[in-house]
Amino acid sequence: MAKIQTIQAREVLDSRGNPTIEVEILCDDQTRGAAMVPSGASTGRFEACELRDGDPDRYDGKGVLQAVAHVNELLRHAIVGLDPADQTAIDQVLLQADPSPQKARLGGNALLGVSLAAAQAGSAARRIPLYRHLNVLYNATGDGARTTCEPRLPCPMTNMISGGLHAGGNLDFQDFLILPVGAPRYAVGLEWIVRVYRRLGELLSRSGYEARLVGDEGGYGPRLKSNAEAAEFIVRAIEAAQLRPGEDVALALDVAATHFFDGEFYQLVATGQEKLTSSDLIERLVELVDRFPIVSIEDGLAEDDWTGWRALTARLGKRVRLVGDDLLVTNSSRLQTAIERQVGNAVLIKVNQIGTLSETMATMRLAESHRYLRVVSARSGETEDTLIADLAVGAAAEQIKIGCITRSERLAKYNRLLRIAEQVEH
Q1: pTM for the complete prediction?
Q2: Catalytic residue of the set 103, 350, 401, 413
Q3: Catalytic: 350?
Q4: 174 and which of 147, 164, 186, 314 could share a cystine (Cβ 3.0–4.6 Å)?
């Protein structure tokens, strides 16, 4: 059995040029694991704390040297000597080191860096691919209540047009995405995505929009007249790619409604200074679903609007996937509340929202047991780390949301899935 020998954290940069944490673990059998922690531009109030230094003279206050020091000076002593393959034991030690609400004492980014690096080291120590190791961890509930799952490729959800906090507020809704729902294999679906993206750029350029403007995750960022116009362009791009809207390729929305909710009204600033109630916004979403082949809506209402969410679920829950991101923040307690209140039917999974891999998997298991679809997701501030691709496959998640197919931190994950598909798809 391998044992953790040393651990080292450092500050590196994410895709937005902000510092984040990288953690390396070396074991006594010379196996090692390393992981980088993503960060979000559009974050929910209930997420785990992302500890930043706050020094305005260094990276505009975004430095993470305090979190790095917590790994190197505190957490390293707590996990040296542990078996890297025993993820539960490692994460329990991390949670004991910081039992504060939302991991505000040491930082969720510090804890997560160690947790994910341990998973990588555990995979190396077991000498199996990371997705296989994560599959073992996901299936190891110990209570015999679940049917174990086999690794499976997820359906990618890919950003086509960006708005909201991802593209300077050019549109109120944050992301307009596509899913290759009719693709027989992952590689085929990926080619369809690339084809649609290219046709979309051509259509935007011919219509007088600057197609080179892109958001944080690589989607086009044109200043369109309305959210509906964004969906119209994507449908036209699917057709121009010689594919069938709704049958081959479907649409998805990330509304990110929390970020234009003032506590009473939803303020649609980018498209006309409108003030909508929850009921008004629900009607807008119903109209879009009636008009376009939309199969998924993420954060259609704000993170505290439980009454509105229940009404939205009653209206659209049997027609589309209603995905909770800011609402659920990969937190099993909030997901349990949603289940009890009959709110939503899908959960976005972001490892840095909760802070450890074990907690992430617990939320995924709870979702699976209540038939909530699971969407493993990247963040706007991403790294070249590809662990979430392995997590989606290992936990047999139904979908993965990586971003667009134009930037290396995104392509690294799409390409990792191509390699895994060679081993998993038959």
Answers
A1: 0.95
A2: 350
A3: yes
A4: 164
